[in-house]
Write a structure and sequence with these properties.
The chain has 329 residues and is mainly α. Helices cover 76% and strands 0% of the residues.
Amino acid sequence: MTSIFRPRSLPDEASPVTAPAARASAAAPAALTAAIAAAETRPAPVAIADLLAMTKPGITSMVALTAALGYLLAGGVLVSWQLAATLLGTALVAAGASVLNQFWEREPDALMRRTAGRPLPAGRLDPDLALLLGVALGIAGLLELALAVNALTAALGAAALAGYVFIYTPLKKRSSLATVVGAIPGALPPMMGWCAVRGEVDLAAWALFGILFFWQMPHFLAIAWLCREDYARAGFPMLPVLDPGGAWTGRQSVLYGAALVPVSLLPSLLGLTGRIYFGGALALGVAYLGFCLAFAGRRSTGGARRLMFASLLYLPAVLIAMLLDRLAA
């Protein structure tokens, strides 16, 4: 049928009116396809939540809290610029260490179920940006401690940062001793708080270090037992991976848990705390050791999970006992 809108004697392709329109119509899909392709290749906007997650806010907050405890036990003033500077610098160093650790471990993290959703292995964050963020946070924290607190506190912060990023992180792929090495920088924050006030590392500072060090080991071993399949898949030779039966893992938990009991009483024996803390630390230490013994006896998933939860309760409970004792004094 002949169209009433177009003369039959003038074909579509020869029409001076419809030819440009036809070319435009043909070009439109190509332009649309190019725009879609460009949008797909354009980097996604960086989410603030992902940047924040890289700093591990929960762990960073606990690090700052233990530094505050060391500061207060050393006789520091609760409301002071010095305390604020100590906490800020310590938190920045801890956040930088967490970011750099995730930067170096982004590939094995992608192989583990519990870490595959992190910003780097999930592809939501550019590795170069993560590296820049980690370095910037670490340097800012060390400079802040050196300029606003003192050189010794900054040196301890540098030791914690270097130990965690450059020793513990690469050692995780080589030896189960990485857990012990990683507990050292994790135990330095209360010592940093102490040195911010006293300007020296004395026996009391080492006592605070010891509490954090020995507390961490059963905590880490319980987590490693629960995640041993993940660690094996990623190539991390954690102790529970090398010890399938769990006998040595259980004994290690008991040894560190037993050592924690007398070490946790040192603040009272050294005159830093009184009876309130002594009684609380003794009860908590014996209870924590009980969970270690229970796990060592059965070496079950349930026992490891209970030990992990006990460790998460133990540390804040001991810190609260210290604070209550300090307030009472």
